[in-house]
Amino acid sequence: xxxxxxQRLGLPATASTYAVLRAAVRALHPDTRAVRxxxxxxxxxxxxMLCAHAARQAVGDSPTG
Length: 65
Known about the structure:
It comes from Roseicyclus mahoneyensis. This is DnaJ-like protein. By secondary structure, the chain is mainly α. The protein has one domain (4-59). It has helices at residues 4-9, 17-27, 30-34, 39-59. The radius of gyration is 12 Å and the shape is elongated.
């Protein structure tokens, strides 16, 4: 099952890891990105998005929208 947060990024399966990170950063509210205390949570979120993208690429999934 694909992560709903990853699906909201709206990326094709062929997107690079850098594109996934850019989309994940843009998905977060600027106030959330500014809080130093949320750094570990942000890093965990970015890692989850990269893992979901890698899993999708491994399966060869078609784009979802």
